[in-house]
Design a protein that fits this description.
Strand order of the largest sheet: 5-6-7-9-8
Strand content: 25-35%
Helix content: 40-55%
Largest sheet: 5 strands, antiparallel
Structural class: alpha+beta
Number of strands: 9
Number of domains: 2
Order of helices and strands: HHHHEEEEHHHHHHEEEEE
Length: 272
């Protein structure tokens, strides 16, 4: 009998270790790993618990994809971990939202939606012969071929692609902010936004940066400058400028799915 109780205590201890509290980053890494995770259900709640019934997300991702996890933000009650998938053809990103109950639990998985339409458009545009490109430019003077292709590539591209574009053109992004501030267009939000985007100097910079528009109506931030790349309906991606970190809107799985810092008051944002 003594040995039975020792065995029972040992077994209970091992079960406790298997269900130990894990930080969001480690949960994310196990959840997107190629191999299965038998203890997965102990670290899920809410939407994620309903969606991942039999397989982890990592088991559903093609095996050829490399995966890397990065904590975007972690507070005492919430956390967001970005997951980058990459293979020889390019990259893709999605975001794991966590909540702290007694322990950390994965609440939901989010990614930029409706990008397949953009990829289809890009395939068609990149296949146009020179004569068709010239005709396209004649019929689309406000969004010519080079701008449209560059814009869609960013829209459907990976976070790394957008960050590389920002780093390469950061001086022009900052010049645009300086013009917006100097000319005080957003003193009257509705009329100001239209005037800002129509300003010849600002418009030329936005076009060269492959930005569709600058606004303060996107990303749940009335004080920020949101440089919208593109998207459909509420699924948008862009760059946010707000030098005061306390004014940067909080991420949430209902709308603002990621706000990734790029440095010096700049952020990559996505909504859904």
């Amino acid at each position: 009998m003594k040995y039975f109780f020792l065995f029972f205590i040992l077994l209970t201890s091992l079960r406790g270790q298997a269900r130990q509290a894990l930080p969001p980053l480690e949960i994310a890494e196990r959840f997107v790993a190629r191999e299965g995770w038998p203890a997965m259900r102990d670290y899920l709640c809410c939407e994620a618990q309903q969606q991942a019934r039999r397989q982890s997300l990592g088991q559903q991702i093609p095996g050829r994809m490399a995966r890397a996890c990065e904590v975007v933000q972690q507070t005492t009650t919430t956390a967001v971990v970005a997951v980058e998938l990459r293979d020889s053809t390019g990259g893709n990103d999605f975001y794991l939202h966590f909540v702290k109950e007694a322990t950390w639990k994965l609440h939901s998985v989010r990614g930029l939606g409706m990008t397949s339409f953009g990829r289809q458009m890009l395939t068609v545009l990149e296949g146009l012969p020179p004569a068709e490109i010239a005709r396209y430019n004649q019929t689309h003077p406000q969004a010519e071929y080079d701008f449209t292709v560059g814009n869609i590539r960013l829209w459907v591209g990976s976070d790394a692609d957008i960050e590389a574009h920002f780093n390469q053109r950061q001086a022009d992004f900052e010049k645009t902010v300086q013009l917006l501030q100097a000319r005080n267009y957003f003193a009257t939000p509705a009329a100001g936004e239209a005037a800002a985007n129509a300003d010849p100097a600002i418009n030329a910079l936005l076009k060269s940066l492959y930005i569709s528009r600058v606004t303060r109506k996107t990303a749940d931030c009335d004080a920020c400058f949101a440089f919208v790349i593109g998207g459909l309906i509420d699924n948008t991606v862009g760059l946010l400028y707000e030098p005061d970190a306390s004014k940067v809107p909080a991420m949430n799985p209902q709308s603002l799915i990621v706000v990734k810092p790029l440095g010096k008051g700049w952020y990559l944002f996505k909504t859904t």
